[in-house]
Design a protein that fits this description.
mainly alpha
Length: 169
């Protein structure tokens, strides 16, 4: 009886483990309504740009950067889908081999986790680089104003979050 329960539990847990690991490895998660710093909690969106009184030249330069980023992302994601699928499958097989092995290989787990962290770090650095390029268009006064606007938004966001957390109690 105990063995049957273990098998049922393993059968239920494995798809969850594989799905979660794969989603995080390939940049999943964060697809819902969560926007973090890029959303209304301190980001740099159209509403903020209107508040900064950008010149026409600044608007044109930012638009050009956004279009270039969009084209770059399209090219990156429209690449060889078979190659991407093969990489995803290989990653999934590594995860599966690790969790289904008779003995847990901590070194292999650390290696796999390191690869996942490295990919995430590369994505974050690229994102920060693009944000820096966009912010370099602003004048020092606009940067100061942006900091104030973002701080105000962060305060409002924190207040909303606190209210939500208190409501759940």
């Amino acid at each position: 009886m105990k063995m049957t329960k273990k098998l049922v539990l393993a059968a239920a847990a494995l798809p969850l483990i594989f799905g979660t690991a794969s989603a995080y490895a390939y940049g999943g998660g964060d697809k819902g309504d969560h926007k973090g710093m890029l959303g209304k909690c301190g980001g740099f969106d159209k509403k903020v740009m209107r508040q900064l009184d950008l010149t026409d030249a600044q608007k044109a330069e930012l638009k050009e950067m956004r279009e270039a980023n969009r084209a770059e992302m399209k090219a990156k994601h429209s690449g060889n889908k078979a190659d991407k699928m093969a990489k995803m499958k290989a990653h999934q097989e590594k995860v599966q081999a690790l969790v289904l092995a008779d003995n847990f290989d901590e070194a292999a787990a650390n290696d796999l986790a390191s690869q996942m962290v490295e990919k995430q770090t590369e994505r974050r650095v690229a994102m920060l680089k693009k944000q820096h390029q966009m912010m370099s268009v602003l004048t020092p006064e606009q940067k100061t104003q942006l900091k104030e606007i973002q701080q105000e938004r962060m305060t409002k966001c924190a207040d909303k979050m606190e209210k939500r957390m208190n409501k759940d109690k």
